[in-house]
Automatic annotation (TrEMBL):
Ferredoxins are iron-sulfur proteins that transfer electrons in a wide variety of metabolic reactions. Keywords: 3Fe-4S, Electron transport, Iron, Iron-sulfur, Metal-binding, Transport. SUPFAM superfamilies: 4Fe-4S ferredoxins (SSF54862). This is Ferredoxin. InterPro entries: 3Fe4S_ferredoxin (IPR001080), 4Fe4S_Fe-S-bd (IPR017896), Fe-S_cluster_ET (IPR051269). Residues 3-31 form the 4Fe-4S ferredoxin-type domain. It comes from Amycolatopsis bullii. PANTHER family: FERREDOXIN. The keyword Iron applies. Coiled coil: none annotated. Its cofactor is [3Fe-4S] cluster.
Length: 71
């Protein structure tokens, strides 16, 4: 099972918090972040990265159900 990770490039402000927290999952490309791959192994830190995004630009889904960012 894997999670899908997306970064909304129109919402991302390029703070780099996600890339600092999980460089194996997120990378900064110019002024915005991108997932390294669209699918990742389940990891609580991926959800932490989505939660900590100041622009709320990261979405994590599991089987089509949104699980991050958490409320």
């Amino acid at each position: 099972m894997s999670w899908d990770v997306k970064v909304d490039e129109h919402t991302c402000i390029g703070s780099g918090m996600c890339a600092a927290l999980m460089p194996e999952v997120f990378t900064l490309d110019g002024a915005v972040a991108h997932p390294v791959t669209p699918s990742v192994e389940p990891d609580e830190t991926v959800l932490d990265a989505a939660d900590s995004c100041p622009a709320m630009a990261i979405t994590v889904t599991d089987g089509g159900r949104e699980i991050g960012p958490r409320p």
